[in-house]
Amino acid sequence: MRGRVNAPSWTILGTPPESEQPTAAPDTPIVFNKQQLSITDPASLWFIVNKQRSTPASYVPAGLRQPGVRVRSSGSSEMLLRDDAATSLEQLVAGAAGQGINLILVSGYRSYGLQQSVYGGNVTRQGQAEADKTSARPGHSEHQTGLAADLGTVSGLCQLETCFGQTPEGKWLAAHAHEYGFVIRYPEGQESVVGYSYEPWHLRYVGKELSIELQKTGQTLERFFDLPNAASY
Q: What is the pTM assigned to this prediction?
């Protein structure tokens, strides 16, 4: 009587048994490096200036130029931006125009002296307490960095007014500014954090990496970098 013949056991060379195969490591979240750039150097893209943090009176950003976009007053020093911010603003305005949105540069760089004049005029008209809600004191304005740009409609509708946020131009900026390295610096509902009333027209250039991260997390610069509220002087 012949014995029972067992079926052969085949093994693929080089392939370990399933129980010994390595398991895939879980996805490791990429942590944003907040130390890449300085937040205290006025020349840094990430420099934070607010009611608590100032820019030296003598500071003038390098590489100021007028961007190739429609401006409120050609030839004015207030129509200048730092070169990197100017280039990105040109791209932003072109991108908006491609979607039927036409924007104009209302205000860019302001020297310490010009901000002194702007703030003083607001105090005269409104009183200091009211002026401090919407206007930065000299040395505390983002405009002195050359990285801030106030934008508006070509028609002038809602220029430097909160209703700008409800215009097609304002809505487009809220949705797309981060794609070009800009953020709405003083967002609605964050007055106690940033120190100023809602300004849907005021953009701050921080570079695409940070602007996309801020858009994703919904944070202000103060919150993202774990800084105290900038609500008062």
A: 0.87
